[in-house]
Write a structure and sequence with these properties.
single chain; 79% helix; Small_drug/metabolite_transptr; membrane; Guanidinium exporter
Length: 106
């Protein structure tokens, strides 16, 4: 169950990162509210996952899902640049997440 919480927390991190961008520095109400609600939900699920997962694993996977997800949203939704170096960096993050999952006892 901890891994389900952790993945959900990571997906919520993607949503709050995107909505924070859309809030234009918290100057737009609706995206600002979405950011705050999804941040709280993401942190809550991360805390639940950390009940049984090691800190290093949980936090790294959470930030990795958020980082790679935000990267993909940036490319596919916001039209940001996807050059080979950036794509390679994202693939290295995903590789690290997979290795952490494989090496986890929980």
């Amino acid at each position: 169950m901890a891994w389900i919480y952790l993945v959900a927390a990571g997906l919520l991190e993607i949503i709050w990162a995107y909505s924070m961008k859309q809030s234009e520095g918290f100057s737009r109400l609706t995206p600002s509210i979405v950011t705050i609600i999804t941040m709280i939900a993401s942190f809550t699920l991360l805390a639940l996952a950390m009940r049984s997962l090691p800190l290093g694993t949980a936090y790294t996977v959470w930030t990795g899902i958020g980082a790679v997800g935000a990267f993909l949203v940036g490319i596919f939704v916001l039209g940001e640049l996807a050059n080979p170096m950036r794509v390679t960096a994202a693939l290295l993050i995903v590789s690290g997440l997979v290795l952490l999952k494989i090496s986890s006892d929980a």
